[in-house]
Every structure is written in structure tokens, then in C-alpha cells.
Design brief:
Blueprint (H helix, E strand, L loop, with lengths): L7 E6 L5 H17 L3 E4 L6 H10 L1 E4 L10 E4 L6 H9 L3 E4 L3 H15 L3 E5 L5 H7 L6 E4 L16 E5 L5 H14 L13 H13 L5 E5 L5 H12 L5 E4 L7 H4 L4 E6 L5 H13 L4 E6 L11 H9 L19 E6 L5
Parallel strand pairs: 1-11, 1-12, 2-3, 2-4, 4-5, 6-7, 6-8, 9-10, 9-11, 12-13
Length: about 350
């Protein structure tokens, strides 16, 4: 179908890979290149089907628990982090571990340890069962209780209402987290804040971009997997911010033509664990459906990069390999797409 000049895609920026995800995926890729297959990975390295399938084809073996890794083998811990118990289990099996936990998640772990040492009740705002929450809770299980939503605030019980602090899962909706904090503070006026904002900068930036393009969009499409918390939140943020409709897809062939049949403007973004190739595929798919003009809506510019895990860096350096690749610009366009830019000046 020929593209209609009156129909457009508003492409969110920032979108896709954050620095923590980039680091974790790079760690598995570098481990496979340097040590050779197989390299075991506990849980999904990041919550994205395409990434997991691609790494599996290269020789990564994904397991659910540490005891599934052969004694003495090499295992990578995912970007979501693990509890001290998992580290102990790995040591008991003499596993060679590469900890790809996102440094921002590690920050939350350290906060939990410090507040537990000072005997605070710690209210962890997050989704029970999510790997990041399990890892954080494992740092101080006797001091931490999970608060899944604002509706659970009334059931929270603490030992001393004057000695309570909150921390949060980094991938949550910023608005829902702050609503939960507000309601907690109504119950516990002396509730202490963490030393710095726990919500990941990438989560905030992706939600901010969606808030800007959603009111201008008849439909918003979010590229991301169903178990990706931040991708699911982007759909919710789009609807709350005025999009006519919003859908999540793992890949381009999941885009239903009926969703965009009458749409003049389609908003497009991707979760923090989504490689740009999947976004380009959706742009191409929308082009086939007659929507070929791409306008980038930028609300922030990200230039953060995290170093690879220390032991992997050391092994690469010892082998004469430059451990950290330069930051790679992620081009938004597909072949033949016309790109215009709109929105605020980039903010650093």
C-alpha cells in the first residue's frame, strides 16, 4: 500500500534499550565470544522474547534456578538482580558467576541492606513475584514487605510508624509509585524517602515521551514482551495520557491492521529491554499499511553507559580485548522512511 502523506507515526525518544539492559545483553554476548558456549543464564537476561531467542541460538542456556547449572559451570545473573541466597547457592556449586545486575537495581539492594541494619521497616513498592522484587526482598527478608499498589496501603503493618522507609522496583509507573507513596505518607507521616529516586531514569524518560505523544495519537503501539513490567506500564501510561487506544506487541507481525485502519496518527515506542530492530520492523509494517511519515518526538537525550561486570572486564583485558564498546547510536528509521523531528530540545 502506498504511504498516505496525511498519516504519520510519532516515534517516541527515548525508547528501547536502557544502559542496564545494554550492559546485561552485552555481558552475555561478550561471555559467549570469549569463553565459548555454553554460557548459562539464570532467568531471562532481560524480559524480551527476541533477545532471549537470539542469545539462545548463539549458545546461551537459560535456566530457572541455580541448581540447574552444572557444578563448576559459568552462569550470568540477569539485569534484575538476585538475592544473597542465590549468590550462596552459586558459591556452593562452585559456579563461575558474572553478575549483570543493573547498577541502579544494585543501588536499591544497598539501600535495603543499610536501612535493615538500622532496623527500619522497609516498604518495597513493586510487584510480588517479579525477579527484581525477589532479589531486593532477599537482602533483608525480615525487614521488607512488598506493597503492590495503592490499594494495599491500608493493610500495611509496621512495628514503629516513626521508623519506616520506602524503596521501589525500578521499572514501575512513576505516577502509580508516587500515588502509593502519597497514601503511605498519609498513614505514616514520618515515612522516610530513599536517598535518591529509585525509579530508573530510563523508565521515567520512556513514560515522559509517551505522555507527550499519547494525546496526539489515535493509537499507540508499544513494542515489548508481556513479562516486561516497564513495557506493560507504557501501555497504561498511553491510555491514561489520552491515547485513543494502546496495544503491546512483541514483533511487527502482531500489529493488527484493524488497529490503525482509520488512524491518522500512530504513536510508537518500546520498552527498555527492546532492541531497535524490532521498532524498525514495526515502522516497516505500518508503512505497508499506508503510514509512512515518521516524526520523532524527543523529550530527553540519554548518554549513560555502564561498564561490564568487573570479572568479565578483567578476563577480556587479560586477553587483550577492549571490554567496553563505544555507545552506539540507534537509528530510528527503516528503509525509505521519512523522518521529521519534533518536541523539546534534547535535555542532558
Amino acid at each position: 500500500m502506498q504511504a498516505d502523506e496525511g498519516r504519520r507515526i510519532l516515534l517516541a525518544a527515548p525508547r528501547g534499550y536502557c544502559a542496564g539492559v545494554d550492559r546485561a545483553v552485552d555481558a552475555v554476548e561478550k561471555a559467549l565470544e570469549h569463553y565459548g558456549a555454553p554460557v548459562y543464564v539464570r532467568k531471562e537476561i532481560v524480559h524480551n522474547k527476541y533477545v532471549v531467542e537470539t542469545l539462545s541460538k548463539r549458545g546461551a542456556i537459560f535456566v530457572s534456578e541455580t541448581d540447574e547449572v552444572p557444578v563448576g559451570a559459568r552462569v550470568v545473573f540477569s539485569a534484575h538482580g538476585v538475592s544473597p541466597q542465590v549468590h550462596a547457592e552459586a558459591a556452593a556449586r562452585q559456579l563461575d558467576t558474572i553478575d549483570a545486575t543493573c547498577p541502579l537495581v544494585t543501588k536499591v539492594h544497598k539501600e535495603a541492606v543499610r536501612f535493615a541494619k538500622d532496623d527500619y521497616d522497609i516498604l518495597l513498592i513493586g510487584h510480588e513475584g517479579h525477579e527484581e522484587v525477589e532479589g531486593t526482598q532477599g537482602e533483608a527478608p525480615d525487614h521488607i514487605q512488598v506493597v503492590n499498589s495503592p490499594d494495599e496501603v491500608d493493610s500495611v503493618e509496621v512495628r514503629d510508624p516513626d521508623k519506616v522507609v520506602w524503596v521501589s522496583q525500578t521499572t514501575l509507573s512513576v505516577d502509580e509509585t508516587m500515588e502509593t507513596v502519597q497514601r503511605l505518607r498519609q498513614r505514616f507521616p514520618n515515612l522516610m524517602d530513599p536517598p535518591s529516586d529509585d525509579i530508573c531514569y530510563a523508565t521515567q524518560n520512556r513514560q515522559g515521551a509517551v505522555k507527550k505523544l499519547a494525546p496526539l495519537s489515535d493509537v499507540v503501539i508499544v513494542v515489548g514482551s508481556a513479562n516486561s513490567s516497564n513495557s506493560v506500564r507504557l501501555v497504561e501510561v498511553a491510555l491514561e495520557s489520552g491515547a485513543g487506544a494502546a496495544y503491546r506487541v512483541d514483533k511487527a507481525d502482531e500489529v493488527d491492521p484493524a488497529w490503525v485502519k482509520d488512524a491518522k496518527t500512530v504513536g510508537l515506542t518500546s520498552g527498555a529491554s527492546v532492541p531497535e530492530i524490532l521498532v524498525r520492523d514495526v515502522i516497516a509494517r505500518l508503512g505497508e499499511l499506508g503510514i509512512g511519515i515518521v516524526e520523532e518526538v524527543r523529550t530527553a537525550t540519554e548518554d549513560i553507559m555502564f561498564s561490564l561486570p568487573k570479572n568479565l572486564r578483567a578476563d577480556l583485558k587479560a586477553a587483550g580485548v577492549q571490554p567496553d564498546r563505544p555507545h552506539r547510536p540507534r537509528k530510528p528509521r527503516s528503509a525509505g522512511a521519512k523522518v521529521r523531528r519534533t518536541g523539546q530540545r534534547p535535555q542532558r
